[in-house]
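Please think about what follows:
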Amino acid sequence: MRTFAKSSKLDNVLYDVRGPVVDEANRMEDAGTQVLKLNIGNPATFGFRTPDEVIYDMRRQLTDCEGYSASRGLFSARKAIMQYSQIKGLPNVTMDDIYTGNGVSELINICMSALLDSGDEILIPSPDYPLWTACATLAGGTPVHYICDEQAEWYPDMDDIRSKITSRTKAIVIINPNNPTGALYPREVLQEIVDIAREHQLIIFSDEIYDRLVMDGEEHVSIASMAPDLFCVTFSGLSKSHMIAGFRIGWMVLSGNKRIARDYILGLNMLSNMRLCSNVPAQSIVQTALWGHQSVQDYIVPGGRIYEQREFVYNALKDIPGISVVKPKAAFYIFPKIDTARFNITDDVQFALDLLREKRILIVQGTGFNWSQPDHFRVVYLPRVEVLGTAMEQLADFLMYYRQ
């Protein structure tokens, strides 16, 4: 009998934020075991609520959102995003440069599919949000991972970036604030990346979905604001900053020197048209969300939930023997390092599975973020401090006796 295998294009694709370890967690839950899921940044799961004004406005507009919108999105949504882009200093942005999407994820896929031919290379950080590597691979391109240096606040290693640029390199991706490390890149780091992109005539793709989740009085700088002579694509959305991940509303903004990307933009328009449009009810509340009360500000200052949960989990992790960690400045992830020699760890997937089965705690192993060594894992610190406290106690107890 004829059987059907998955496409070979998937051979080098992974998405372990929802992968085999998660499959095991789901099996355990189906059998009646309660699992604490620290694997995915899903705010609603942990009691973060969408602002009431946003829900109210969507309800009022639902009957006006039954049809398709223009492929790029509703006028009101794109106008609000354009104005937000102006505040962030993005140069040379018009209404036609704004594209809404079903989350940033859809737009990343469109961008990679429109750009990459077989053999084309794109620089992507390691660790990365794995969708970038997956989409580049599926588009036929070759992801080339540059190292982010844990000893330097997880900032990109510029020498490593330079060493990996070839005649086939078309673009560089930055994730700022970073997922999974929580790093925030200062202006001087961004300037170095701009200088490299300028020297080698690269497109800059900047994933900035966490730009409003910055703590400690730090400032988020959009790299496109520093590169008016380059072609940049900047991504953001409401999933994290407004706690509405399920609404699936993100956007991308084209800026800078668009003349050099005219044909590429035609490709973006074609793929954007092919999916007709993004979620129209979600588009309808972009204006309200971007320019109304920013409730996330209450979470990221001392006394706020995200701030206090970050403080707690950072201190708890660094007190566990065999764990070291860099304090995140943004987002709601932390990426601790585990002493593999101490615990004899050679397989971080197995480590994640063992922790899940022993302590019913679900994390994502570092190799799931295209990190080359089995010595890191990501923790989502969205649960309340009481829950995180129990989880960290369980992790510390597990590591007291664990050897792989």
In short: Residues 237 and 250 are 4 Å apart (CA to CA).
